[in-house]
Amino acid sequence: MSGENSEDRNYEETTEEEFLETMLEWEDSGKIYARKGRNDRKKNTLSVYAATYMDMEKLRVAQGVRITHLKLDESPESEVKPLEDVLSTLEAQSKALDRVITQIVKKHPAWTGFLCDVKGVGPHLAALVIGGIRDVEPLTTVSKVWYLCGLAVLDGEIQRKRRGSVLNYDNRLKSILLGRVAKQLLMNKDPFATKLYAEYKEYEFKRNPEIKKMHAHRRAIRRVIKLLVSCMWRAWREGEGMTAPNAWVLEHGGHTDEITPDMWIRYNKEEYARAKQNQ
Question: With contact defined as beta carbons under 8 Å apart, do 24 and 47 qualify?
Fold first, then answer.
């Protein structure tokens, strides 16, 4: 390929190393996710990779929809093929990036100290959540990380989109946590998460017998995810040598039941041992 401009190269010929070098160049330019009001949380390699992966995933879905529409319109194969090639390239590059971010996250304190023992939260999902949070140092209380993830309660109401109001949380993080992570916890039947979910759901029905099943489900799983994020935040901060104070409700709100990463992990291991004995 002598004399060929690098910009004219086929994307399929781009090596994984060249692709990742490009990602780092974009990171150094300061143009990736320099979102207003978020500069207190430092960007890092994992956060840039996770954000890039999510962007590519969104583009892959859009390309798939466009290809489907062209086929439904019975467009000639010659018109569909270029988009299919683009989609194949996106899928290949996404897999390359995913391999890298899963290796990075396996060395992260939030993974080694907690998430690796949570059934249903693998390295891929953990990387997207940890990369979305980016930096835990300015998140000095669990309330701050709940607020960032869209899990806080403000003036008696949960955080949600409101017409005419600026979004005050990271919508991607909230979607991943209450969507993918919640689904995987229940599908894979993490012992402690399943136990909490059943208790919280039962509580909702006792408090309001007329409540709809879906509403009870959403309230229960939201509480489980808040506790998961709390444990992850504590393991992350303690793993980096920072303090992790108790939540406000434990210090001042009269609550006494604290759930820690060690408690979650210990319960899961006990359940695994019990299940093995019963086999």
Answer: no
For 141: left if phi > 0, alpha if psi spans -120 to 50, otherwise beta; the answer is beta
Residues 70/86, Cβ–Cβ less than 8 Å:
no
- Name 94's Cβ contacts closer than 8 Å, sequence gap at least 6: 53, 56, 57, 60
CA distance 223 to 177: 11
Give the helix/strand (H/E) hosting 153: strand 153-154
pLDDT tens digits, 104-117 = 999 999 999 999 99
Compute the distance between CA of residue 201 and CA of residue 58 in angstroms, rounded to an integer.
33
Contact 202, 245 (CB under 8 A): no
The string of pLDDT tens digits covering residues 221-257 is 999 999 999 999 999 999 999 988 776 544 444 445 6
Q: How many CA atoms lie within 13 Å of 222's alpha carbon, on the beta-carbon side? A: 18
DSSP symbols for the chain: -TT--GGGS-GGG--HHHHHHHHHHHHHTT-SS--TT-TTSPP-HHHHHHHHHHHHHHHHHHHHHHHHHHHHTT--HHHHHHHHHHHHHHHHHHHHHHHHHHHHHTTSHHHHTTGGGSTT--HHHHHHHHHHH---TT--SHHHHHHHTT--EETTEE----TTS---S-HHHHHIIIIIIHHHHHHTT-HHHHHHHHHHHHHHHHH-TT--HHHHHHHHHHHHHHHHHHHHHHHHHHHTT---PPPHHHHTSS------HHHHHHHHHHHHHHHHHT-
Distance CA 252, CA 273 (A): 37
